[in-house]
Amino acid sequence: MPIDAKQPYDDQNIFARILRGEIPSKTVMETDHSLAFHDINPLAPIHVLVIPKGDYVSWDDFTAKASDAEIADFVRTIGEVARMTGADTQGYRVLSNSGKRGGQEVPHLHMHVFGGAPLGPMLSR
């Protein structure tokens, strides 16, 4: 169910629980400020989620409140994940859903890195 990305951060969301080690994940990469792991319900042969370790609800929340070091680390981690998974060799998509109309389901900023197959149109109706 889509969430309101303008609500305060919910520290019981699934990604917060993964960061605290309460829920396991299959890690692709971890840095001081970011965690990348395989999606448990992949929508493409390559489907990795990249999340900041800070308590940010959405992209606009993150870019308004995160430090320059956190932002740089997060963006670099996304690029490194594309290279590590081989998604960069034939093309990939980076996607972040934000808020109800954007289809955001977890109130923690996350980027999807998709690849490994043709991904179709950017939006479907």
TrEMBL record:
Pfam families: HIT. Residues 14-124 form the HIT domain. GO terms for molecular function: catalytic activity. InterPro entries: Histidine_triad_CS, Histidine_triad_HIT, HIT-like, HIT-like_sf. SUPFAM superfamilies: HIT-like. A motif (Histidine triad motif) lies at residues 108-112. The active site is at 110 (tele-amp-histidine intermediate). PANTHER family: HISTIDINE TRIAD HIT PROTEIN. This is Histidine triad nucleotide-binding protein. It comes from Sphingomonas cremea.
